[in-house]
Amino acid sequence: MINLDGKILAAKHIISLSLGSARKPVLLLSFGKDSLLLLHLIRQVHPRFSECLWFPEQIRGQERRNEFGMQLIKDLDLRCYTYPPSAMDVVQGEDGTLELVNVQDFGQGGMLFLPIGIAPKIDPRNFACGLDIINKPIIPWGSLEYEWDVTFIGHKSSDKCPVQGDIPLEGYWSPNGSTTMVYPLKEFTDDDVWECIERFGIQYDTNRYIGEQHEDDSTSPTTPDYYSACVECLIEKPDSPTASCPRLSGELVPRIGNTLNAKERAKNWRKAFINLSPTDSGASVQS
Questions:
Q1: Which of 65, 97, 127, 248 lies 20 to 30 angstroms, CA to CA, from 148?
Q2: Closest of 89, 78, 135, 132 to residue 111, by C-alpha
Q3: Does an H or E element contain 98, and which?
């Protein structure tokens, strides 16, 4: 069992190795606790690091969810890039949990799946239509050259996906199209992350987490983790051919989810979700 100091040392070692071989590194930044800790550790190794990728949702009426990120970009002098997805997907777990997914083109056949969290209850005064979200503008595959050869990401082996469940990492590095994904926080737990945030005095979005356990607040109108959106007609329910549409004052509409095979695609999606082909050769991390 590696203690927290050992995990921090190992993470910095991974970061140092990756930066040493990188032509143009970038950090995937969501402004959640994990990516903020990773940014802090990267800057401890390379104080002038500023290149970040951020993929905020642009949903009309819910712009407040991006305010914290926009402010931190200014406060930390970050250089952030973003671009539209090249596809949208709908996946559904066996328990009925549904996620809308942005599929980002990482070049040379690589891709990244970025799920959109849907709040368990919609705000009747301000909600988006799931159909509008999955039909938002996209860019063609191959139309964008992914220019970063190393991509840091804050995913941890202990993380759980609402649809996929446990997704343990197989290694610290994983090739993905024209980049190599790097997971310095692989061995961290949520408790480790919060202890580091307190230890290092890292600024985080207090509206995003609630309680002593810092649980995600799915009800907050300012959290970027969950959006108020109706996805009822996208949920697969074979015994229910229609769904009540709140946008149409409860009118019954066809349940599109019964034709999407979202449950079956979720099984295939898991294989390509993250860290598919680990490559840890040459790495030596000691606790």
A1: 65
A2: 89
A3: strand 98-107
pTM above 0.85, yes or no: yes
pLDDT, tens digit, 9 for 90 and up, residues 169-217: 889 999 999 999 999 999 999 999 999 999 999 999 988 888 776 777 7
Beta strands 160-161 and 165-166: pairing type?
antiparallel
Query: Do the Cβ atoms of 45 and 16 come closer than 8 Å?
Result: yes
Pair of tokens at residue 50: 């500023």
- Structural domains present in the chain: 4-273 (3.40.50)
Which residue from 18, 150, 141, 139 is spatially nearest to 82, judged by alpha carbons? Answer: 139
Helical residues (DSSP H) of the chain, grouped into ranges: 4-21, 33-45, 67-75, 130-134, 190-200, 262-273
Instruction: Return the H-helix or E-strand segment holding 115.
Output: strand 110-118
Residue 277, pLDDT above cutoff 50: no
CA 39 to chain centre: 15
pLDDT digits (tens, 9 = 90+) for 58-97: 888 888 889 999 999 999 999 999 999 999 988 887 777 8
Q: How confident is the prediction for the chain on average, in pLDDT?
A: 87
C-alpha 86/C-alpha 111 separation (Å) is: 9
Closest CA to 184 of 43, 58, 65, 74: 43
